[in-house]
Write a structure and sequence with these properties.
single chain; mainly alpha; 3 helices; rod-shaped
């Protein structure tokens, strides 16, 4: 039983139009999600950069100025010097151990 189905051009055009609309909607939603993800990634990177800068602003001047005072020199490192060092990759992450080691050693040495 072979039945032939006649499809009008109107039905095909309507189906293609609907398919194009759905495709455009999906593309728009994908672009929107990509922008949201990118915005979240940038916010996360900035958050950690500022976090390490704040930690560096607190810990680096303490550690460096403590050793300068121990050596008999004037404390000259300001908080913004420590914040600038905190922005440097891989150096900012060592601020807390350096401050702890300085604190422990100065407890022993002084």
């Amino acid at each position: 039983m072979n039945k032939k189905v006649n499809i009008d051009n109107v039905e095909v055009r309507s189906a293609l139009s609907t398919l194009r609309q759905r495709t455009e909607r999906l593309k728009k939603n994908r672009r929107k999600k990509e922008k949201e993800v990118l915005g979240g990634a940038i916010a996360t990177i900035l958050f950690f950069a500022v976090l390490w800068a704040v930690i560096g602003a607190l810990c680096f001047p303490y550690a460096i100025n403590s050793w300068l005072v121990f050596a008999g020199k004037a404390a000259v490192v300001k908080w913004y010097h420590g914040a600038a060092l905190g922005f440097v990759p891989y150096i900012g992450k060592f601020t807390i151990p350096v401050a702890l080691v300085t604190w422990i050693l100065l407890l022993i040495l002084v």
